[in-house]
Amino acid sequence: MARIVLKVRKLRMDYQAKLGRPVEQKELAVAVGIHENTVSRIEQGKISRIDFDTLIKLCGFYSRVLERDIGIGDLLEYDPINNKRGLEAAAA
Hints:
Largest sheet: 3 strands, mixed
CATH topology: 434 Repressor (Amino-terminal Domain)
Helix content: 40-55%
């Protein structure tokens, strides 16, 4: 069965590298305007769906702070081969 791989955690790691300091999920949640639990569930792949508003907020935030265009494909990836269930976090 195909799956959607979440790559949001990698973007947070890229942001941390740019800043040269850790960025906690809580800090990200406040900056993006979503709940900290939502960030955690997305990064851990423990979410079965993400609304468009959340995707837009994440794309907008990471586009600004990483100073490059971030689109849906930078947040999500389709894996047609893997037989694991549902949305899963990408390896960090």
